[in-house]
Amino acid sequence: MPLEGELVILREEHPEDMVRLAALRNDLETQAWSKSLPPDYTENMYMKRFQGREFSYDPKEGRFIIISRETGEFAGSISYTGLHPRWAATIGLMVDKKFWGTGFAAEAQELLLKFLFTELGLRVVRLFTHSGNPRAVGLAKKAGFQIGIRQRQAIFKNGELYDNLSMDLLREEYFARHPQLVDNLPSLA
After folding, report:
1. CATH number of the domain that residue 20 is part of
2. Is 165 a domain residue?
3. Could you write out the three-class secondary structure of 34-87?
4. Structural domains counted in the chain
5. Ordered mean pLDDT values, 10 residues apiece, the chain (189 residues)
6. Strands 88-95 and 124-130
7. Containing domain of residue 70, as a range?
8. CA of residue 119 relative to chain centroid, distance
9. Around 88, how many Cα atoms within 13 Å sit in the side-chain half-sphere?
């Protein structure tokens, strides 16, 4: 079942998405990874990952394609990985440059956060980026993420040194920002 917002729909991956996913991952502007890498992800690598998944629910990760609600166009990808049930997961987001500044990334992130906190009952959601990616840092801060770990000058990208950032959002912080939602899990404090 897809996650639906006003601007975007988050749906499962399809085989025809692999070409676009490889292109986004190989574009050092659209992928916000905290390390430089040679752009060597191929469609075949993505297809192998896609075909290697089991048809049963894998609780450790979820990968979604971001689709424009209005046009049905592929706009990017958002995922969670490393799930520790009822505790934590790490999210990742890539949006096609065509959709920068449209609100798609913010809504996709909010849809996934709501799912992770309300449906999976997580205590903390994390993400990784770097100080040279102001779009990713700003989007995370807008959602309430805070810098938990800063590794100074750990990233060398495009001839510049940047800080590697680990950012996190706690369950209490998420629900404080969304008073219309009810937190049905007991507090650990």
Report:
1. 3.40.630.30
2. yes
3. CCCCCCCCCHHHHHHHHHHCCCCCCCCCEEEEEEECCCCCEEEEEEEEEEECCC
4. 1
5. 94 90 80 58 72 64 94 96 93 95 98 96 95 93 97 86 95 96 80
6. parallel
7. 3-177
8. 17
9. 9
